[in-house]
């Protein structure tokens, strides 16, 4: 009878035994005061564990989490707008440059036959771009672009830092 | 319809559709249970609240990856448990952690003297011991009793076998049983 170990008693408590094992433990509890005492104490532990109340974080916890979530989405939205405005600015610069190139090519061309217009325009435009992106100009153009990227990066970083500071309070 | 009556799945779907405010219902639903588990694991109110906040933010950010294959609670408690482990992963705490389990249970049992055992109210004593349980034992006890999870679900969260969960559960209960037996013995002597 006393070979009812703690594991069997625990399984009995959780109704995790086969029918035969269950009967064996039940009989042991009824017939052995030692097993009965162990089981009753275990049952008491089980009841106490069941009755322990849960604890709570600070009262405004939910509000704080929601505030952080809002802040995060605001920052993400602002980052998106910032990136969009930088890209639009770059796009505008490129558009202006291409427009200027077209203007230069068209204004420098002499009157020609309509069948040669497309061929001549594309040839002249190609020449213009080849000249513009020559060794010297390409370096200047690259430097300006890098400078714009650096400035944008700095502003983005600074803006993010500022936003985080604002929302963390 | 009252948001509080909605199921987790319905709330998550609503949040995914852009109703961010509905997430507050999920927070209210899980914050106390998760906080209790974290407090028992981290043994500290401040850390528990900080980690819990991170868990809710992580869960929100990864809500798009939640495919409803498991219950939200299982998914969320896995985040909670792993975040607690990460918090405890500083060198000193990690060593303490690895040395815990059986040795800690024995230490816990012997750390209560006759005076503590007899004077203390039984409910308070049980609560006190539960709060001092090693990390895994605390997590298992909390999920089993407070969250009323099945051992299979707990095993899934802790990424251990079901039999391991049962061993941890039984050891924790046996520790408490032995302490109560010791208490009864002292009371009889007195």
Descriptive notes:
With 169 residues, chain A is an all-alpha fold. Chain A has helices at 6-13, 19-31, 33-51, 61-108, 117-132, 135-168. Chain A starts with 5 loop residues before the first helix and ends with a helix. The mean pLDDT of chain A is 81. By secondary structure, chain B is mainly α. The mean pLDDT of chain B is 84. Chain B has helices at residues 8-16, 23-42, 45-61, 72-87, 91-98, 102-110, 114-119, 122-132, 135-146, 151-158, 162-189. The interface between A and B is medium-sized, with 32 and 38 residues.
**Poorly predicted spans of chain A:** none
| Mean pLDDT across every amino acid position of chain B | 84
Largest interface: A-B, 32 and 38 residues
Give the total of beta strands of chain B.
0
What is the multimeric organization of the chains shown?
heterodimer
Return the string of H and E elements of chain B. HHHHHHHHHHH
Biggest sheet details of chain A: none
Number of strands of chain A: 0
- Profile the largest sheet of chain B: none
Radius of gyration of chain A: 40 Å
Number of helices of chain B: 11
């Amino acid at each position: 009878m006393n070979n009812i170990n703690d594991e069997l008693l625990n399984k009995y408590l959780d109704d995790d035994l086969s029918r035969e094992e269950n009967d064996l433990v039940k009989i042991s509890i009824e017939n052995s005061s030692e097993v009965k005492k162990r089981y009753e104490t275990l049952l008491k532990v089980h009841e106490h564990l069941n009755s322990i109340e849960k604890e709570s974080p600070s009262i405004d916890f939910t509000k704080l989490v929601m505030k952080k979530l809002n802040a995060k989405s605001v920052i993400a939205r602002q980052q998106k707008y910032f990136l969009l405005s930088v890209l639009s600015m770059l796009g505008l610069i490129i558009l202006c440059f291409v427009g200027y190139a077209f203007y230069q090519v068209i204004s420098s061309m002499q009157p020609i036959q309509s069948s040669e217009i497309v061929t001549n325009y594309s040839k002249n435009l190609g020449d213009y771009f080849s000249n513009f992106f020559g060794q010297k100009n390409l370096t200047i153009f690259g430097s300006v672009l890098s400078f714009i990227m650096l400035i944008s990066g700095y502003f983005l970083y600074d803006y993010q830092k500022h936003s985080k500071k604002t929302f963390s309070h | 319809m009252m948001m509080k009556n909605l199921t987790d799945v319905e709330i998550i779907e609503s949040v995914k559709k852009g109703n961010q405010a509905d997430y507050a219902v999920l927070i209210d639903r899980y914050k106390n249970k998760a906080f209790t588990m974290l407090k028992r694991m981290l043994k500290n109110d401040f850390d528990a609240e900080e980690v819990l906040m991170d868990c809710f933010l992580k869960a929100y950010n990864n809500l798009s990856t939640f495919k409803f294959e498991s219950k939200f609670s299982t998914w969320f408690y896995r985040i909670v448990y792993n975040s607690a482990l990460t918090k405890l992963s500083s060198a000193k705490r990690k060593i303490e952690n690895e040395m815990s389990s059986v040795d800690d249970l024995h230490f816990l049992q012997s750390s209560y003297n006759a005076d503590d055992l007899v004077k203390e109210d039984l409910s308070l004593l049980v609560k006190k011991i539960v709060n001092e349980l090693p990390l895994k034992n605390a997590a298992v006890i909390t999920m089993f009793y407070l969250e009323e999870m099945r051992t299979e679900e707990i095993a899934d969260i802790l990424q251990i076998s079901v039999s391991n969960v049962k061993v941890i559960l039984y050891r924790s209960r046996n520790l408490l049983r032995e302490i109560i037996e010791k208490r009864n013995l002292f009371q009889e002597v007195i």
